[in-house]
Design a protein that fits this description.
The chain has helices at 2-26, 38-42, 115-122, 125-131, 147-164, 177-180, 255-263, 276-280, 284-287, 296-311, 325-341, 349-367, 373-382, 390-406, 410-414, 417-425, 437-443, 446-459, 482-497, 501-505, 508-516, 527-545; strands spanning 50-51, 61-64, 70-76, 91-97, 103-111, 189-192, 200-203, 209-215, 230-236, 243-251. The chain is α+β, with helices and mostly antiparallel strands. Helix 18 packs parallel to helix 22. The two termini are 42 Å apart.
């Protein structure tokens, strides 16, 4: 009997994973920067005549005037901030920097977050004024009612500004495919290298890695030879651990000294085959290297520039784990909800009354951390935000996994503020409206039908605001849309006359959690499982057809 229960649990878990995979395969993840045009640059640089292609390493796009002189730099926060998720997805912000790398302004280009949260951020002029003070101002005020969204946008901007420090103002020319094709004849494209060294990855038509390339500027910009700094490219093997070749790309040195240094057959070619680690620790005196005769200062400056580049820390893509007070409080509430779920305390009237007050006051009105279709679809598309929102991640995992493996509805019964509010309101009157049995039976199917419709719509690639189909955004009332507020009010009023009316007759998230619920006494493949199988088949057909 037990093995049947576990097979059923694995089946329902597989359904959840398959549904998330379908959503991820069909939703357009905004993980790429968008092409920029001159008109966008002229907002901050009126004399803009040309925008360079994105630098493969930093993402910087250099703005030049009609004379070819650098006037500013444009940065997009994606793809480097693709893992910084607000409530349900990442955001792409365009940042304009002057020649001194000072922020002139910023503009949100796109966002995977819910429409109401994004609208709230866009309308807050004070927030965007503060952005111009970054990075000197450190952390800035989040937008009230859209804390997670604005915080993610700010952190994305800070990461881009960190990457901007890697943008050279002396050599503002990104590595381009045509420049590297003599080294890699079969190369078809370049991509940002997420490895520790940064730089670019060189790929062929089959996306096989041919090699990795990085340039020494701006790390080498402070290193002056005889007359000025030199920008050098370092060609690495596909693993990024062995140097294949070092060649000078551009320089402020005199042509005579530079020619002597680069034409010496024993100088730069002598570093080919060295490991990156040995080059980092290369000691000129110990190795007996005194530079190229006739261009000593120039050649030694090239070596020092390469070493500086290999020894510096690059801007990585992985976000740091963030654990704040709100995360600790939310995890503590989840743990206490677990105690209520598995103990007799859940039946104590006063404990229930106080606990519902905590859920309404903190989880709902203060934190606004509720599980919803918008959240689940966003995380299915962009990944779980466990690094930036560990408390909400624990809450969501508990909501999904506890009913699956224990048969207990920890979220619906002990964590949902909207459910807690309905329980409070249900005590206002003892006169309850009883629906006819047939009507009640059909109305209880509405949440499952709504859940199915939303899944198929998202799977088909429809760009709909999932938050508008549930009341949960209304708890963050400063950022909520009219649809969420209307559903919330209607559901709460209905709960006065029918216990937990919205939970029973309207909640698609509750329908998902009821589907997952698998108790020890349940061991049969039920109608909901057949319905889920048919729904997955329909979703897969839509995905293939689309």
């Amino acid at each position: 009997m037990k093995h049947r229960v576990w097979l059923l649990r694995l089946w329902r878990l597989s359904v959840l994973i398959a549904a998330m995979a379908l959503i991820r395969s069909q939703c357009r993840s905004i993980d790429r920067p968008v092409p920029l045009v001159k008109e966008q640059a002229k907002q901050w640089f009126p004399g803009a005549a040309k925008i360079s292609a994105p630098d493969g390493e930093t993402g910087a796009q250099y703005v030049t005037d009609g004379f070819g002189d650098l006037t500013g730099v444009l940065m997009q926060t994606l793809p480097r901030a693709n893992d910084i998720i607000g409530y349900s997805g990442p955001s792409n912000t365009l940042i304009a920097l002057d020649r001194n790398r000072k922020v002139k302004g910023a503009k949100l280009l796109s966002s995977g977050d819910t429409a109401d949260h994004v609208r709230r951020v866009l309308e807050d002029a004070e927030y965007w004024d503060q952005v111009r003070t970054l990075p000197d101002a450190g952390l800035i005020r989040n937008v009230s009612g859209a804390t997670l969204t604005s915080s993610a946008i700010t952190r994305g901007i800070l990461r881009a500004l960190g990457s901007a420090e890697r943008a050279s103002l002396l050599f503002p020319y990104p590595l381009e495919l045509r420049e590297l094709q003599p080294l890699f004849p079969t190369a078809t494209k370049l991509e940002h290298d997420p490895a520790a060294l940064g730089g670019v990855v060189v790929l062929n038509a089959r996306d096989a890695v041919l090699g990795r390339v990085l340039r020494t500027s701006p790390a080498s910009d402070p290193v002056t030879g005889y007359k000025g700094p030199t920008d050098t490219i370092v060609v690495l093997d596909p693993t990024g651990k062995v140097i294949r070749e070092i060649r000078v790309r551009d320089s402020y040195e005199t042509e005579e000294y530079l020619s002597v240094a680069t034409k010496d057959s024993r100088f730069l070619p002598g570093f080919s085959g060295r490991s990156v680690e040995s080059m980092r620790n290369f000691d000129l005196q110990r190795e007996g290297v005194s530079g190229v005769s006739g261009a000593t200062r120039t050649s030694l400056a090239v070596v020092e520039g390469v070493q500086r580049r290999l020894n510096e820390s690059s801007i990585g893509n992985a976000s740091r784990f963030r654990f704040e007070l709100r995360d600790g409080l939310l995890i503590a509430i989840v743990c206490l909800a677990g105690v209520l779920t598995f103990s007799s305390w859940r039946g104590n009237r006063w404990v229930r009354w106080i606990w519902n007050g905590i859920l309404i006051g903190y989880v709902g009105l203060i934190a606004g951390d509720l599980v919803s279709q918008a959240l689940l679809a966003g995380w299915a598309t962009h990944g779980i935000a466990w690094r930036s929102l560990p408390g909400l991640a624990v809450l969501t995992l508990a909501a999904l996994l506890v009913p699956l493996f224990t048969g207990k509805q920890i979220y619906c019964h002990h964590l949902c503020p909207h459910g807690a509010a309905q329980q409070w309101l249900g005590r206002l009157t003892n006169k309850k409206f009883v629906l006819p049995a047939t009507l009640n039976q059909w109305m209880t199917k509405i949440p499952f039908l709504l859940l199915s419709a939303l899944l198929l719509a998202v799977t088909a690639g429809a760009r709909i605001n999932l938050a508008a189909f549930e009341p949960f955004d209304a708890w963050i009332f400063r950022a909520s849309g009219m649809a969420s507020v209307t559903i919330a009010l209607v559901g709460l009023i209905a709960s006065v006359f029918h216990p937990l009316a919205y939970c029973k007759f309207g909640c698609p998230t509750g329908a998902l959690l009821r589907f997952l619920r698998t108790g020890a006494s349940q061991h049969r493949f039920e109608s909901r499982d057949w319905a889920a199988l048919g729904l997955l088949a329909a979703g897969a057909a839509i995905a293939l057809w689309g």
